[in-house]
Amino acid sequence: MVELETERLDAIFHALGDPTRRQMLRDLSGGERTVSQLAEPYEMSLAAASKHIKALESAGLIRREVRGRTHVCHLEPGPLANAHEWLSFYEAFWTLRLDRLEDLLRDEDAAKSNPPPKPEGDDR
Amino acid sequence: MVELETERLDAIFHALGDPTRRQMLRDLSGGERTVSQLAEPYEMSLAAASKHIKALESAGLIRREVRGRTHVCHLEPGPLANAHEWLSFYEAFWTLRLDRLEDLLRDEDAAKSNPPPKPEGDDR
DNA sequence: TCTATATTCAACCACATGGTTGAATTAGAG
DNA sequence: CTCTAATTCAACCATGTGGTTGAATATAGA
Fold first, then answer.
1. Of A10, A51, B52, B73, whose CB is crowded by the most CB atoms within 10 A?
2. Which residues of chain B (64-83) touch nucleic strand D at CB < 7 A?
């Protein structure tokens, strides 16, 4: 497993916590876009959109290729996979009925012979 | 697909963007915890931890049951599933090789007879 | 070279966030 | 009833965030 450092997840989830940035990612899922193309749908100034793009970039969610005077952005899906994987830890909790969950956890712990129901220090 | 309102996702991802709160969720995956139990591992004041718990609660990620003078929290996995589902949209992007992705998207669009994802700059 | 386009930078502002401390609330225990 | 424990509330503070505007930078094109 990846033992992702917490700082990385901070940046990823923080970047995803803004609707403008999520929409920009959605937009980029249709192919590469320049900064102005990404900014176009929003009321805000170009400078503001540029900041959002920088946030996405420094979270590693997009990559930027400078082509002459235009900056072309494309999706960088790795960190999204990381976030997805982090969430997958909880998959059992929304998949199983709660009364079965306890048994499952106990079984898994027995299999690993790990002390489980207190996974402190797993992330962070 | 669920067409989750954006506000909900804002709160969920924002709540997940803090290491203390992620750790608290991890802790709660081991079973219910009181507020003081949740706060115990951290240096911060109880009031500060209480605020984090409130953030998790108002994002719907935990539920609180008041038992006498103690508040017992447990995980509420629904919103985690929502976030997971939101991220799943991008699964193809980290699963497939990029040169195959374009074809896939085109095929899907053709199948739905939707206007394809703005094929400008798709060549190269 | 001159001008227009694409983008960032810097300064600034309002408001949110994450933390503190001390007082208030509520309930169990003697 | 009183004391103590569990928790929140309120006020406050420093810093971060998301937005603005105007100037700066760099490149494309005439």
1. B73
2. 64, 69-72
pLDDT in tens, chain A (124 residues): 666 789 999 999 999 999 999 999 999 999 999 999 999 999 999 999 999 999 999 999 999 999 999 999 999 999 999 999 999 999 999 987 656 656 666 666 555 444 444 443 445 4
Q: Give the whole-number percent of chain B exceeding pLDDT 90.
A: 71
Q: Closest approach of chain B CAs to the CA of A49, in angstroms?
A: 18
The pairing of beta strand A70-75 with beta strand B62-67: unpaired
SS3 content of chain A, % helix, strand, coil (to 5): 55, 10, 30
Helix (H) or strand (E) holding A7: helix A6-16
Question: What are B13's two structure tokens?
Answer: 């991802």
pLDDT per residue over B53-67, tens digit each? 999 999 999 999 999
Q: Does B54 touch chain A (CB under 8 A)?
A: no
Strands A33-34, A70-75: pairing is antiparallel
Domains in chain B (CATH in brackets) are 6-80 (1.10.10.10)
Q: Does A30 touch chain B (CB under 8 A)?
A: yes
Is residue B11's beta carbon less than 7 angstroms from any atom in nucleic acid strand D?
Answer: no
